């Protein structure tokens, strides 16, 4: 277990709680080549990867999550490509309950709900992936530089992180979203602003890992052999901090879907004619008891989407946790 | 400890001032709050010019920020675009929000600790699986979804079935409410039940997962193993060694999460049509009302900072190994 004495209570807590917000157990800071794994695997990259993969597939919850997520993503893509009705198509059947020709029913202007819900799902996944990539790259970069160099660079960067952590995210997000909502085709900008507020936790985590890793003997040895800073970071430090980063990226996907759908529900997120699950729920809420299909399908898809990602994240956390040496079946 | 607290507060004030500058710039640059008035041909040009003057819209940005800042540090948050003072509005809306938040926080703690303990003690059994999946579902479901589901599929059917209003789904109280506090209480309660349950469900889940993990981790600790091997009864080990230590991290988590509960309350209020802080703030943002936005930012940021500090202090107080100096 990585030395956690440098972490604040909040961070220690996130390491323990796993998925409540975006935490996980730290990956062991194992020098390359050391025999680290209780399964008896050598700690070289491929061996670790195989162990992690094996633990992951033995966790039914994680496999279920991955399966549901993959099924939803594939269904969303296929529907967009092959389904009879497009998102913008308007039919003559208004407010029809689910039937063979419209499995999810139609809305008050005759739009096909299957096409809408699937497009909304895909839109949510697109935004969430963009946010996760942005937050992970930015957070890792800032955390790595701050943790590796320490001193003045570190304190400057951590003040920036403090600034973002202290401001209630929802406030800034709503203010920014109000500006972005007026742009045409705003999903890209929506992803950018959510990403810009989501990288701080990863930055703190990577920094804490790097602070303890850089003092390790194998890093010293490598440095003595003449390795450059860049080589030390990319070849020695980053691979050892990769586990927590991956788990966090997964959780960021789930959290950004929550944020995006909340903004869309408030009317500040995705704007018509674009579609997202949050927007569909907002549009369907008034007829939830009469035209239930307008409300229930997007709600079920949204919850399943977020839940499956949480399960994947939780499974990854357990698979990467060195303390869990027994495989839970 | 005292130096630590003072240092933290000084840094926080600095960060807070920066935050208000940032949000001020964002709102000021995002559009003209009088655009609607200007579009209306029936409003004389003179009126708009006067409003512009009152709102200092034509002054340089730094001057406008300074006007806000110099008043705000004296406790005057200025007027809304409509010309009403912001301070009293902030107070009355905050009281409405706190009704829901305080109740939900207390009940969430009880629920989370109970669920966490039960599922940790029944680890791997059916009870644990059911509790864990339920926790995850409420963790995954966004606040507005939980609120809408309760509103549409609990309140409305129950009210229709019993043919009278048991759960109100709109507003924090009936608009025509009169009488003494005791006479008003049933009306408050009927309005508060569902929003509070919504907030409890989305709040307790992460705490329960955490409580469970914390107990399991403590049960694995060496001192617990030692206590058991000394021959202390399992019950006594749980009460004296496991629970007391497992509650320490949870306490700080709850303090840290108070800000998140406030954020959840904002969304819950909008679902249930409460005239609380959330609705007020959202209207402020969409009408580009800088003073409302900044007042809301200040009050929530101060609560975040104070509760984060409280969490750190509690942590050091409950766990003597933690030192901040």
Summarize the structure.
The complex is a heterodimer of chains A (329) and B (325). Chain A is an all-alpha fold and 329 residues long.
Question: Any overview of this molecule?
Answer:
- The complex is a heterodimer of chains A (329) and B (325).
- Chain A is mainly alpha-helical and 329 residues long.
- Helix content of chain A is 65%, strand content 0%.
- In chain A, helix 4 runs antiparallel to helix 10 (229-265) and helix 4 runs parallel beside helix 12.
- The longest helix of chain A is centred in the middle third of the chain and has 37 residues, at 113-149.
- The radius of gyration of chain A is 22 Å and the shape is elongated.
- With 325 residues, chain B is mainly alpha-helical.
- The radius of gyration of chain B is 25 Å and the shape is globular.
- Chain B contains twelve helices and no strands.
- In chain B, helix 5 packs across helix 8 (181-219), helix 5 runs antiparallel to helix 10 (234-271) and helix 8 (181-219) crosses helix 10.
- Chain B is 77% helix and 0% strand.
- Chains A and B meet through helix 1, helix 5, helix 6, helix 10 and helix 12 of A and helix 1, helix 6, helix 7, helix 8 and helix 10 of B.
């Amino acid at each position: 277990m990585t030395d956690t004495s440098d972490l604040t209570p909040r961070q220690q807590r996130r390491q323990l709680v796993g998925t409540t917000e975006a935490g996980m157990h730290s990956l062991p800071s194992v020098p390359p080549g050391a025999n680290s794994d209780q399964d008896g695997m050598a700690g070289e990259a491929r061996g670790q990867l195989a162990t992690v993969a094996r633990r992951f597939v033995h966790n039914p919850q994680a496999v279920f999550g991955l399966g549901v997520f993959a099924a939803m993503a594939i269904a969303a893509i296929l529907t967009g490509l092959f389904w009879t009705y497009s998102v913008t198509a308007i039919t003559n059947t208004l407010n029809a309950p689910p039937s063979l020709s419209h499995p999810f029913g139609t809305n008050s202007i005759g739009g096909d709900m299957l096409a809408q819900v699937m497009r909304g799902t895909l839109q949510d996944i697109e935004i969430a992936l963009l946010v996760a990539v942005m937050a992970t790259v930015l957070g890792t970069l800032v955390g790595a530089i701050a943790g590796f160099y320490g001193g003045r660079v570190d304190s400057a960067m951590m003040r920036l992180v403090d600034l973002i952590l202290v401001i209630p995210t929802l406030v800034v997000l709503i203010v920014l979203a109000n500006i972005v909502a007026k742009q045409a085709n705003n999903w890209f900008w929506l992803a950018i602003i959510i990403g810009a507020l989501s990288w701080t936790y990863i930055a703190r985590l990577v920094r804490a890992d790097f602070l303890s890793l850089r003092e390790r003997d194998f890093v010293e040895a490598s440095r003595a052999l003449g390795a450059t800073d860049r080589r030390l970071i990319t070849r020695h430090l980053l691979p050892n901090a990769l586990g927590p980063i991956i788990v966090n990226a997964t959780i960021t996907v789930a959290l950004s879907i929550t944020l995006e759908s909340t903004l869309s529900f408030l009317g500040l997120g995705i704007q018509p004619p674009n579609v997202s699950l949050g927007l569909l729920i907002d549009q369907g809420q008034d007829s939830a008891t009469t035209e239930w299909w307008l409300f229930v399908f997007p709600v079920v898809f949204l919850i399943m989407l977020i839940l499956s990602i949480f399960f994947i994240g939780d499974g990854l956390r357990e698979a990467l946790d060195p303390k869990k040496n027994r495989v839970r079946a | 400890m005292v130096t630590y607290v003072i240092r933290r507060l000084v840094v926080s004030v600095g960060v807070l001032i920066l935050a208000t500058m940032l949000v001020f710039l964002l709102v000021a640059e995002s559009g003209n709050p009088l655009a609607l008035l200007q579009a209306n041909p029936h409003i004389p040009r003179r009126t708009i010019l006067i409003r512009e003057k009152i709102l200092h819209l034509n002054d340089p940005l730094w001057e406008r920020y300074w006007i806000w800042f110099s008043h705000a540090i004296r406790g005057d948050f200025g007027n809304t675009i409509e010309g009403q003072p912001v301070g009293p509005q902030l107070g009355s809306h905050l009281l409405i929000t706190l009704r829901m938040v305080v109740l939900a926080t207390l009940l969430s703690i009880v629920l989370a600790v109970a669920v966490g303990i039960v599922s940790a003690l029944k680890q791997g059994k059916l009870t644990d699986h059911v509790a864990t999946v339920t926790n995850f579902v409420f963790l995954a479901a966004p606040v507005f979804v939980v609120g809408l589901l309760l509103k549409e599929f609990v309140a409305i059917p129950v009210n229709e079935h019993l043919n009278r209003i048991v759960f109100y789904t709109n507003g924090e109280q009936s608009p025509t409410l009169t009488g003494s506090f005791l006479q008003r209480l049933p009306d408050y309660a009927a309005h508060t039940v569902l929003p509070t349950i919504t907030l409890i469900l989305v709040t307790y889940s992460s705490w329960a997962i955490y409580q469970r993990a914390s107990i399991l981790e403590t049960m694995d600790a060496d001192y617990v193993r030692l206590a058991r091997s000394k021959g202390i009864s399992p019950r006594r080990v749980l009460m004296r060694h496991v629970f007391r230590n497992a509650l320490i991290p949870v306490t700080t988590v709850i303090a840290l999460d108070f800000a998140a509960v406030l954020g959840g309350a904002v969304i819950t209020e909008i679902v249930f049509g409460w005239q609380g802080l959330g609705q007020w703030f959202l209207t402020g943002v969409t009408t580009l009302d800088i003073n409302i936005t900044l007042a809301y930012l200040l009050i929530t940021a101060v609560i975040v900072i104070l509760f984060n500090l409280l969490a750190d202090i509690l942590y050091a107080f409950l766990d003597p190994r933690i030192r901040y100096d």
